[in-house]
Design goal:
The chain has 258 residues and is an all-alpha fold. Helices cover 56% and strands 0% of the residues.
């Protein structure tokens, strides 16, 4: 597996320099996803207790996700090729596609623009008393708290775990000060584009299916991340690790050797 091939399939899934654990996990899961057999996910009642068992659960989870994502992307590319060949690809509104993290966070950024007095509090990593921001942040955590910017790297803290880091990224976004294009007038499609609209809708559905699978995978990965850190804490108590976070410096193949 190359990081470029994974980046094409799942943009921003891994950072430019992923942890040793995440790189080995994705490399192994990518190979598994190419196999004919289908790896099943663990049942909800099954909670891994050891590092090796948790690593195996993550491997199964990622391999299953990669396989499903590649299937959906293959369908999407077929539709994209036909729409491009017919010369109508550029006519369709991109608003129908899944949102980027910048788009998802923009309402929170807008609240900071409206209430600039809360910015210093956010930079300290604290949630301000402002009821508008607190309500929006609570909803954000409810829906996206178990995810992260480069969420495929299981070593990285999730949004809800790292308010300071999340707020820093939020504040780095360019605030929206004009809303002239908030409700843009959608250009009228050509006759040919209208005739091929079903292909566009199939492309959009495939992209949303990948996003749905990604969200569900990250929800399961969040639980396994917690299980991994809990198991690593036992090795800290035995003096075999200095910190639970040191487990991310180990490849998935070496977990059993700890």
């Amino acid at each position: 597996m190359s990081l470029s091939s994974l980046e094409l399939l799942l943009p921003n899934f891994l950072p430019a320099r992923p942890s040793a654990f995440a790189y080995s996990l994705c490399e192994s899961a990518w190979r598994e996803s190419l196999q004919a057999h289908t790896l099943g996910r663990l049942s909800e009642s099954t909670t891994p207790k050891t590092l090796a068992a948790t690593g195996e659960a993550l491997l199964q989870l990622y391999a299953s996700f990669f396989r499903q994502a590649k299937e959906q992307q293959s369908l999407a590319e077929t539709h994209l090729e036909r729409l491009t060949r017919w010369g109508v690809w550029e006519e369709y509104p991109r608003m129908a596609l899944p949102q980027s993290w910048e788009q998802v966070m923009m309402p929170l950024r807008g609240i900071v623009t409206a209430f600039p007095e809360i910015e210093p509090i956010l930079r300290q990593g604290h949630v301000p008393d402002n009821i508008v921001f607190r309500s929006a942040w609570r909803f954000f955590c409810f829906r996206y708290g178990q995810r992260a910017l480069h969420e495929g790297d299981i070593a990285l803290p999730r949004f809800a775990e790292d308010p300071k880091g999340t707020f820093a990224h939020l504040l780095s976004l360019q605030p929206v000060r004009k809303y002239d294009d908030e409700f843009p007038t959608t250009p009228k499609l050509s006759i040919k584009a209208r005739l091929l609209n079903k292909l566009w809708q199939k492309y959009v559905c495939a992209q949303h299916e990948i996003e749905r699978q990604r969200s569900e995978t990250m929800q399961e990965a969040y639980s396994l991340r917690q299980a991994m850190l809990a198991a690593a804490e036992q090795f800290v108590q035995k003096g075999r690790l200095q910190s639970p976070l040191d487990v991310w410096n180990t490849s998935i193949h070496d977990l059993a050797k700890l």
